[in-house]
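Saturday, quiet lab. Running sequence design on the structure tokens for the scaffold JK sent over.
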């Protein structure tokens, strides 16, 4: 993610950690915090689910795709067709999902984010950047 951060200006760790404040900064302004949140994960960082589940706002809404039901095609379809997608910019799978969502004309794809001078999260890459080099 460090190289991607240098190229795009995105935060070098936020998308990896998926801290509750980061997730809420995306979901709250678009009114999605009161809807089910589906975590699709490769399982490399189980602390992400634990942190999100403990959060009083996110916890009641968080769901995880059961391991026995998870497969690449199904996970990609869920992510591409979701109302909102929050991905990891260092992940080639997240990049493919984001590119697919843009191609389908779907909004609310969050991949490259950083804090502005006032500490608020903002997008630092438009749709063209999603298709650019990382």
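Result came back. Writing it out in full:
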């Amino acid at each position: 993610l460090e190289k991607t951060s240098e190229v795009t200006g995105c935060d070098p760790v936020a998308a990896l950690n998926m801290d509750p404040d980061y997730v809420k900064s995306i979901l709250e302004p678009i009114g999605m915090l009161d809807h089910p949140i589906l975590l699709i994960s490769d399982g490399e960082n189980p602390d992400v689910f634990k942190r999100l589940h403990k959060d009083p706002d996110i916890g009641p809404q968080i769901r995880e795709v059961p391991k026995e039901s998870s497969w690449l095609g199904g996970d990609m379809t869920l992510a591409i067709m979701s109302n909102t997608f929050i991905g990891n910019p260092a992940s080639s799978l997240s990049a493919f999902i984001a590119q697919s969502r843009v191609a389908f004309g779907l909004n609310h794809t969050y991949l490259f984010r950083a804090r502005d001078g006032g500490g608020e999260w903002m997008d630092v890459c438009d749709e063209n950047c999603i298709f650019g080099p990382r």
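Notes for JK: Strands lie at 37-39, 62-64, 85-86, 109-110, 113-115, 121-123. The first helix runs from residue 2 to 8. Ask whether to fix the surface positions before the next round.
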